[in-house]
Amino acid sequence: MKKEIAKDLLSIGAVFLRPEEPFTWASGIKSPVYCDNRLTLTAPAVRDAVEKGLAQTVKEKYPECEVLMGTSTAGIAHAAITATILNLPMGYVRSGSKDHGRNNQIEGKLEKGQKVVIIEDLISTGGSCIEVANVLRAAGADVLGVASIFTYGMKKGLDRLAEANLLNYSLSDFDTLVEVAAEEGYIKAEDKERLIAFRNNPSDESWIK
Predict the structure, then answer these.
(1) CA nearest to 116, candidates 135, 130, 99, 136
(2) CB-based contacts of 108: which residues, under 8 Å, 6+ apart?
(3) Who's near 20: CB < 8 A, 6+ residues apart?
């Protein structure tokens, strides 16, 4: 599945590799990769593969799951479609509490003790899904883990997830993407080592040279 999802993401430009003309992240870090998994929603065939993959992941890795919770905003649609496939309740967690009405941060019904899986589109440092897990746990949920579309597999992200005691299973990852991109001609074969060097230490720009 990892290679097929990687091919899908590359084919629609949801994950785009450009080692010769790096993108600049908000943090100022130069990156050879651009990710926008929201594009999967506008590509029906890819969307179908992604949602079926997420459903399969939840079913196999988290068979006790009772509720899906999407991250705001990118994970919401994926959580809704996956929940429909699995016939499960679904909700989402806002980045902050509303300043009106019931001041909810968790949208959708959630009972204390319910077993929850978080649906996330992209994991880099793991910050957003860890924040969501903390909100859900504070509300009394039993967070089983995360099902995501794509992960960089960066050490910082892996360490933070482990520290938060949060499992993650992704449909595809950066290493697989780089391998497929070289096979399919999106990048030169000799660029693979440079891209893995970026993954290993994004703040070290020596890979650019």
Answers:
(1) 136
(2) 67, 69, 89, 90, 91, 92
(3) none
Residue 209, pLDDT score: 75
- DSSP assignment string, 63-108: TT--EEEEETTHHHHHHHHHHHHHT--EEEE-SS--SSTT--SEES
Model pTM greater than 0.90? yes
Mean pLDDT of 182-198: 93
Q: Could you give the 3-state DSSP secondary structure of residue 124?
A: coil
23-72 confidence digits (pLDDT tens): 998 778 899 998 999 999 999 999 999 999 999 999 999 999 999 999 98
Element (H, E) at 21: none
- Other CB atoms within a 10 A radius of the CB of residue 133 amount to 24
The DSSP 8-state label assigned to residue 143 in this structure reads E
Q: Which residues, in sequence order, are CB contacts of 161 under 8 Å at separation 6+?
A: 123, 126, 129, 130, 146, 167, 168
Tokens of 14: 């949801």
